[in-house]
Amino acid sequence: VDDCGPRASRFCIGVSLLEIRCPRAAGGRVLLLARNQVLDFQRMVQVVRQVTIIHASPSWWRRLLPFVPATSVDKGEFKDLRHASAGGDTVSPDLLEAMKGLFRNAEIFVIYGCTEISCMAVTHLVSRDCQIRKTWLGKPFRHVQLRLYDQNQRQVNDGLEGEIDIAGPGVTTGYLNLPELPAEQCGPIAGRPFHRAGPWGRRG
Question: Distance between CA 63 and CA 39 in Å, rounded?
Answer without folding.
Answer: 9
